[in-house]
Structure formats: C-alpha cells, structure tokens
Amino acid sequence: MTGTDPVPTVCVCNAVDTLGEVAGRASDARQASAILAESFSQQDQAVFWQPTRKLIVTARPIGNLDWQTGFLGLSGVGNLSPRSLSGSLFTDIVRDEQVMAGLVDYAGPTGRVRLLPHTTTADLWTFVETLRLRGVTVELPESCPSQTLRDILDTKHGLRSLVVELGLAGSTCRVADGRTCHSRAEATVAVTEFLAEGRPCIAKADRGEASVGLLIFRPGDDPEHIRRSLTEGTFYGDDPIVVEEYVDGDDVVFPSVEYIVPEEPAAEPVLTHVCEMLFDGPTRLRGNATGPSLVTEKWYENLVSGSLVIARELQRRGYRGHFGIDAVARESGEVFLLDLNPRRTGSTHVHDFGSGFFGANYAEHTAVGNFDFYGLEAGISLEAVLDLLGPLVRAPGSAPTGVVPCELTGLEAGRLSCMIFAPSMDGFHALVEQVRGRIQHAGHDTRAESP
C-alpha cells in the first residue's frame, strides 16, 4: 500500500556494495567477511531516513523492525529483501521476482516510485530500466546521472585533485601535504621522505572505505617494515596510493560535514549538518554526534565555507544528491579534508533522526548522535539488551535524554548500535559512558576490537 503519498518512496540501502569491492581484496575470505560484517548493519539506518512512510529494500531483513517502529511511533515502514546475495543489491533485486513484484505493487496506480539509494552504483541503471520495462517509472532525485563523475569523487586522489583545482590548497580548509603515488615503490619513497623530515604519514587505498586500506607510519619505523607493509598490502590492488602527512596530536578533533546538491542549477547546495566523528584508536570509527556547541568551534566556519566551495563545484559538474566530507581539525581552526563520500553518509540517519523527532533546528538545542558498542555475545536478543540498558532506553519526546537501540541486525554479530539524544554534547558523552558501564558491568568487554 502506498498510503497518501502521491509518489511512494523506496529506499535501497546498499550500504556495503562499494565496500565489498575493497573487502574482496583481503588476503583471505575470512578477513573479507569480517570487514563486511563490521558495516553490514548500516543497512538498518534507512529506518530513520525521511520521509517516514517508505519501503526499504535491504540485503537482509531488518532486525526487530516491528519493535523499532512501534517504539518510535513510525508508521508505514515496509521492508523487502532478496533471497540471494551477490555483492550488488540492485542486481539481487532484479533477479528476485518476489521483490520485483513487491516494488511494482508498491508503485500502485501512479506507476512511479521515488528512489533514495544509499549509494548510486553502476547497477542502479539496469535496475531502473528493468522496472521501466515492467511499467514503473523511477524518479532519482539523489542520484548523479554521471556514474563516472560519482566514481571519481569516491576516490582519495579525486578529493585531492578537486581541492587543488579550486584553489583551496593554501587555505584554512585544505588537504594535508602529500601526493598521489602510482606504484607501491613510489609510495614507499613518499613515506620515507615524510619520515626523514620527522613527520608521520598515512598511506590510503584510493578506493578504501570504513578505514580499510589505511597504514600509519611514524618516524623511527623500520624501513623494511614500511616496504613490506606497502608491498604486501592487498587492499591497494593496482590503484593509486595516496600518501599524506598524518595530522594528529592532543588538540585534534574529527569533524564531518554533509551537503545535498540539488538538481536545479540555480538552487544553492543545502548544508544538512556538521558532526564530530568519534573514534576508538586512530582509525576505528565508533560514532557521530552533532549538537549546539559545535557551531562555536574555531574550525566550524572554515569547514562549512570550504566544503560549500566544493559543493558548488560538484553542482557545476552535474553532481546531485548527498555528499559528505570527513576532516581533521586543529584547535587553531585549521581544517584538513580527508575523504569525500558521494553518497548518503554514516551520519545522514543521525540528522534525519534529529530533524524528524526534534525539528528542523534540532542542532540548536539538542545533541544527537549514534554510537556502536562491540564485544557482546553474538546473537544477543533485543530483550536482553533492553534489560541491560533499563531506564536509559527512552523514546524522543518522553524525556530530555534517551538511548534508542538501533541497527538491530547487528546484534547477530554482538554489535550494539544506539541513537542517543541529550540537551548538550556533554550529556551525549555521559550517556555513552553509562551505556558502556552497564555493558561492562554485565560482563561484556566493550573494548574488544571489531573485526
């Protein structure tokens, strides 16, 4: 049923499709599976995407969806999943007659659907044509019509080139000193030169995602270790390797910004949100949070204005839809851009949760974020999680602070994700520690590294 929506919305949350390409380069199948398992439950994030009423297609059924929608008062959320997986969700949908029939039925009398994908991949276009042949027209308000442009932007060297071309290289919002290397030998030379100058550096797989393909080197590292790490690193494949100065220290934070580039050339790109990425160790992302205090940070305006320049250029080149930029910032306000993600990002659902439950200006008065906790028993039940968290679990509107278990498909792997809200960033972090404390008190080790 389509309800009252004139054009029903379909979300295809192919959250790990492009990650699968990089994970497939792992040294063995077990490592590849572990990498995908780390991010797989991100498919559930589409529950919070706007609009509320929608049909979500995911690789596997969303765990405990009825509880989630009932607890939050979300109506009109449906879910379909194909019976077999190939690594391309769009391909799997086309091959599954039951899912295809469900989509045709969902289009209803309008014969149209509005499609919001997590990532616009090359297989999207075959999917759209297949639906057209079955009488369904697909609207694509968030998909860049140039697949080549989207794919170039989804590389580390693509961001570096873009920043240089736009004249941002010498600004307070720029990329770190570095270069794009076209062989492992060239990357080894670049790393050696950085270390000889006493500067730590990082080597990045050009199409790496989710911290896959990152190697950090510091002055004093053994030259043979450096050579072997780069020579034997399977995630680099035959792609370029970006080597940059590694910006770290006690004064750094990791902000991220997201824009929506509209289809209309005259319309200004829309800033959806700025958040702070939360890490456990140098490269293990654990969450994102946004709130009232971020706008007062010295780096805030530098990041927003610099990324707006990029958003306008992407619009000029024909890009449309969501994109995010991850960065590292110093206390002085200097911003170094790390990665451009031409897709819905890992914090899109945080923003949609905030705006959906607390209003369009939520970030002015409420801190909202997600955080992932690891080390629980694989297959732990939702009931056990609710008992564990007790009174911390509250729905938005019922209290000024609360914890909402989400991405519940991850419980199968012992991963507990939570959406957390509070009046301030300090309150958000306090709730993170309370959840961590309850999990540890129950005998689970949240310090356990993810795969």
Structure notes:
The model has no long low-confidence stretch (mean pLDDT 94). This protein has helices at residues 17-23, 29-39, 65-72, 89-95, 97-107, 123-133, 147-153, 156-165, 184-196, 223-232, 298-317, 348-358, 382-389, 425-441; strands spanning 9-12, 54-57, 77-80, 112-117, 137-139, 173-175, 178-181, 201-205, 214-217, 241-245, 255-261, 270-279, 285-290, 321-329, 335-341, 367-373, 402-406, 416-422. Helix 6 (123-133) links the parallel strand 4 (112-117) and strand 5 (137-139). The longest helix has 20 residues, at 298-317. Helix 4 (89-95) runs parallel beside helix 6 and helix 9 (184-196) runs antiparallel to helix 10 (223-232). The two termini are 40 Å apart. It is α/β, with parallel strands linked by helices. The chain is built from 14 helices and 18 strands. It is globular and about 65 Å long. The strands form three sheets. It has a nine-stranded mixed sheet with strand order 6-15-14-11-12-13-16-18-17, with helices on both faces. It has a five-stranded parallel sheet with strand order 3-2-1-4-5, with helices on one face.
List the helices and strands and how they pair.
Elements: E1 9-12, H1 17-23, H2 29-39, E2 54-57, H3 65-72, E3 77-80, H4 89-95, H5 97-107, E4 112-117, H6 123-133, E5 137-139, H7 147-153, H8 156-165, E6 173-175, E7 178-181, H9 184-196, E8 201-205, E9 214-217, H10 223-232, E10 241-245, E11 255-261, E12 270-279, E13 285-290, H11 298-317, E14 321-329, E15 335-341, H12 348-358, E16 367-373, H13 382-389, E17 402-406, E18 416-422, H14 425-441
Parallel strand pairs: 1-2, 1-4, 2-3, 4-5, 6-15
Antiparallel strand pairs: 7-10, 8-9, 8-10, 11-12, 11-14, 12-13, 13-16, 14-15, 16-18, 17-18
Helix pairs in contact: 4-6, 9-10
